[in-house]
Write a structure and sequence with these properties.
4 strands, about 80 residues, Alpha-Beta Plaits, alpha+beta, 4-stranded antiparallel sheet, about 40% strand
């Protein structure tokens, strides 16, 4: 399957799920090219990821994160690069 490049934005609304987020990201480390965390004073922290993987791999990551309570996640994928 063809690899795609994309970005993923994660908003963490609850500090209780941070360990679960980090565990999921660690399991998908092979498709993460870059990661930036942005703590915010309103308690809604952000993580942005640059990814390279198949749509199945990126969908798996997005789906696992999206099932967590207190998390919002959005992804954008580029067409063939």
């Amino acid at each position: 399957m063809e690899k795609r490049v994309g970005t993923l934005i994660i908003q963490i609304n609850s500090h209780e799920c941070v360990a679960q987020v980090n565990d999921i990201l660690s399991r998908h480390a092979g498709i993460i090219l870059g990661r930036q965390g942005l703590p915010r004073s309103n308690g809604k922290n952000l993580i942005s990821l640059i990814l390279e993987g198949t749509t199945d791999q990126i969908g798996s990551l997005t789906g696992q994160l999206g099932r967590l309570s207190g998390i919002q996640v959005k992804s954008v994928l580029l067409k063939n690069i």
